[in-house]
Amino acid sequence: MKLRPVLLVVLILSAFYYVTTHVGSTNAFTPWLHRAAPPAAATASGASTAAVKGPMGSFELTEADAAPAYDTEEQQNIAVYKKALPSVVNILSTAVSFDFFYGPVPQQGQGSGFILDKQGHILTNNHVIDNAQKVEVTLSDKHKYKATVVGVDKAHDLALLQINNAPDLQPATLAESANLTVGQRVYAIGNPFGLSGTMTRGIISAIRSIRGPGNSPIEDAIQTDAAVNPGNSGGPLLNSRGEVIGVTTLIANNGADQSSGIGFAIPVNTAKAVIADFAKYGRIRRPSLDISTLAIAPDIAEQIGLPADYGVLIQRVLPGGAADKAGLRGGSQRAGYLGNMAVMSGGDLIIAMDGQEIANTQDLAAAMNSHKADDEVTLTIFRGRRKMEVKVKLSDATSEKAPLGQQANS
Predict the structure, then answer these.
(1) Nearest to 282 by CA among 139, 93, 153, 126
(2) What local confidence, expressed as pLDDT, does residue 54 receive?
(3) Per the residue annotation, which of 93, 112, 121, 127 is the catalytic one?
(4) Catalytic annotation on 233?
(5) How many CB atoms within 10 Å of residue 93?
(6) Are 189 and 199 contacting, i.e. CB atoms less than 8 angstroms apart?
């Protein structure tokens, strides 16, 4: 009699094992379980549930009935991308250096650019192709072309390339950069880290003067928080209509080779002026006063006895140059030395150009950068103690001229 309870327990355990390992695994009870479960809560409007069944059981997923419509902001982003992308190119430059044993070592760099016309002209940064022996351009449709360098403007970090026999090119639309405003939405399209066709978005954070990769001044540079990384250089900075307002050129990376939220672009009006010089003259015509100068600080002004403690003192005037023709005067007597450089006194002291204060040689370079050869400017000067204005027609700094000496030339 004592054996019966033991057999009963074994029988119950055997039945439980069979049910859980054979019947349960085939989902034989699934319909019954569904019937026993409480009804599911109603789904949100525009959505429905779909059951997915398998060995692990059944899952009910809530799915949208249709793809959601894009909101206004998304529609604008997409429109800008679709309009601008066919004009943006990837640029691969190859330079050859030599190792310790004078063996050639190819070095490659990547950047971006954009198409200017159907003849295959492309604008990019000079530092993207500087010293390259080979330049290859990849269009948005992945076709590759060998590019030739038509001209460079190292001072503005711009370069003009050309590809041939490329059909159906789509030129970028160039906007104006004169009236840009902080807070405007902007887009950067390029090939950061070689990831072609990448678009980022931000705003214009500031309009300011900066020093470019070659330490030359870039006036009215566009500062943006749109993510800009290595490989974006030379690509377009766009407004909300997909028009080019600048050429992405550098980032403030604080030592890190990636975006820091502070990127800069050369204003497109500067690029237009460079392109116009290439088209008209085949080279860049840099405006010049044909003078050598010395920046004045309070200590130098006191030592020489100048009427102002700022400005740019003319040391020498190139005979027959722009300043000479306008009657400007250089130094006439040696007043001392600044390091190894002789300081000449008696020359005109420039304190303004077209009403814009000139405190040092950087200000003078910035003012000159906003002009072109043959422009007429009005200089405010001190000649002795007498303040006066002189009109000067700027010359072409790239034409053949005699050297002016060791001082900074303008």
Answers:
(1) 153
(2) 79
(3) 127
(4) yes
(5) 22
(6) yes
Annotation says 22 is catalytic: no
Catalytic residue among 87, 196, 205, 233: 233
Q: Is the dihedral of CA 339, 341, 344, 349 positive or negative?
A: negative
pTM score: 0.68
**Are 225 and 205 a contacting pair, CB within 8 Å?**
yes
Sign of the torsion formed by the C-alpha atoms of 215, 405, 366 and 124:
negative
Contact 398, 284 (CB under 8 A): yes
The average pLDDT across 32-43 equals 47
| Residue 157 among the catalytic residues | yes
- Phi and psi of 402, rounded to 5°? -75, 150
Per-residue tokens: 19:
């049910």
- Point out which residues pair with 115 in neighbouring strands: 122
Question: What value, to the nearest 5°, has the Cα angle with vertex 137 and ends 133 and 139?
Answer: 175
Helix, strand, coil percentages in the chain from 3-state DSSP, rounded to 5: 20, 40, 40
Which of 157, 220, 225, 363 is the catalytic position?
Answer: 157
